[in-house]
Amino acid sequence: KVDDPQISGSQIRKEVKQLLANSFENEEESQLKRWLGHADQRIRLKAQFEFVKRGQMMTLIDVATSPSQPLLARIHSLWGLGQFKDRVTASFVSRLPLSDSDPEIRAQSAKLAGDLRASSRMQSLIKLLQDPNSRVRFMAGISLGKVGDPQAFQAVTRMLMENDGKDPFIRHAGVMAWAGMNDIDAL
Asked: What sign for the dihedral angle of Cα 5, 9, 13, 17?
């Protein structure tokens, strides 16, 4: 355990201790939304899991797609949406913020699209293979492998050629995309 004794009695420590001890079961939605962006990850996760427990998928998609929300709240909303994996609709998948201005939101959205096997977002994932952010390209490649549609083969190949072996993570994402496509003739 690592600790800083100088802040052991600080206001944030007291708040976190109290929040961890309390149930979020009866909290208002507006308060849970604020806690999705809390400084302490344990509080963010607790709020995320409460939204999932309540089945509030639309609230989470609203937070995830809102640029005015704190980044961590948006990320936890996307993670919470992933917990609804078995109940996802096409309408929900179409709202994933794959073209968001924040690269981490694009990366997390691409990861979620892959986890959901969202073939309807394949063209958006292919576009993300050219994203200026390498983390976004990585997540898009991995996700295309999970979707498994060989139509993305040439785009993945182009990403790998442009990478030219420089970034091992991009190489890995491309290989996983190819493997997921399972197109022996193209390989």
From this structure: positive
Cβ neighbours, 10 Å, residue 166: 9
Spatial neighbors of 51 by CB under 8 A, at least 6 apart, are 32, 36, 59, 60, 77, 80
DSSP state of 22: S
Tokens of 159: 């990403």
C-alpha span between 115 and 134 (Å, rounded): 19
Give me the mean pLDDT over the 67-89 stretch: 94
Closest of 63, 73, 33 to residue 50, by C-alpha: 33
Residues 106, 128 contacting (CB under 8 angstroms): yes
State pLDDT tens for residues 104-133.
999 999 999 999 999 999 999 999 999 999
pTM of the model: 0.91
pLDDT, position 72: 98
